[in-house]
Amino acid sequence: MSPYRPLVAVVAYHLADDRVARWPHGGYGVPAPYLDRVRAAGARTAILAPGETGDAHELLDPFDGLLLVGGGDIDPTRYGQTPQEHLYAVEPDRDDFEIALLRAADALRLPTLCICRGMQIMNVAWGGTLHQHLPDMPELLPHGVPLANTESLHEVRAEPGSRLLATAGVRTLSCSSHHHQGVDRVGEGLAATGRSDDGLVEAIERTLSENDGRGDIWMLGVQWHPEDTAEHDPVQQALFAELVNRSGRRGSATDARDPS
To answer: Considering 154, 179, 180, 225, which one is annotated as catalytic?
Structure first.
């Protein structure tokens, strides 16, 4: 019997009406490197798009893992702030959809990796807040600005005892970064487990109280883009490999219990 290949859900974002030639009504998409890196780790992928109806728990039922990718900004009213001038590509229905999926993944103990915007929506989903425009904070290192098509390669230090450190296997990661927003106040039930040299939160993880009683969960958010360099950097590919590994273990256990 061949090894079980887990199925990972990847959430798409909107493509504007003029984004793809001969698509007058837009569509949904996911940049290929995200899918490539998950597949390279041994998983199958399927795309979920905003607009799906039904309960988020039911939507995730066929899947063994969840991946949230980068994209535009989150509506600041969701974390109690007034929108500022540098916001771009806000998708309220995507915000709703991803928050519901994260809450369901948490309840289902579904292994989840959240990248860039994905980490930000993870933070907001548990009541955290964001810095709306990092270039307005001169004390910070350059982190890249998507609208200006700039990126930065900088180091992130993983906290001892963190899932990030256990997954990456090294204390210091070299990370490709292009984001103009970042985590301010960390959400409830989350822990900041990676920071850049300027102190900005670069990784968060879902934590559990000792009395939670619902079992372990692997839910990790990273502010950088591991898919940019993972093909040639095994430390970055390890993030996708661990998502797939945990998804496979979960899927294998579920498959073994299925009498059909």
So the answer is: 225
SS (H, E, C) 126-148: CCCCEECCHHHCCCCCCCCCHHH
Which one, of 71, 56, 59, lies nearest residue 14 by Cα?
Answer: 71
Q: Which of 98, 116, 131, 178 is catalytic?
A: 116
| Rounded-to-integer distance, Cα 163 and Cα 245, Å | 14
* Residue 175 annotated to the active site: no
239 contacts 167 by C-beta, under 8 angstroms: yes
Closest CA to 180 of 227, 136, 129, 128: 136
Q: Is the pTM of this model over 0.70?
A: yes
Count Cβ atoms below 10 Å from residue 131 Cβ, excluding itself: 18
Q: What is the pLDDT of residues 96-138, one digit of tens each?
A: 999 999 999 999 999 999 999 999 999 999 999 999 988 888 8
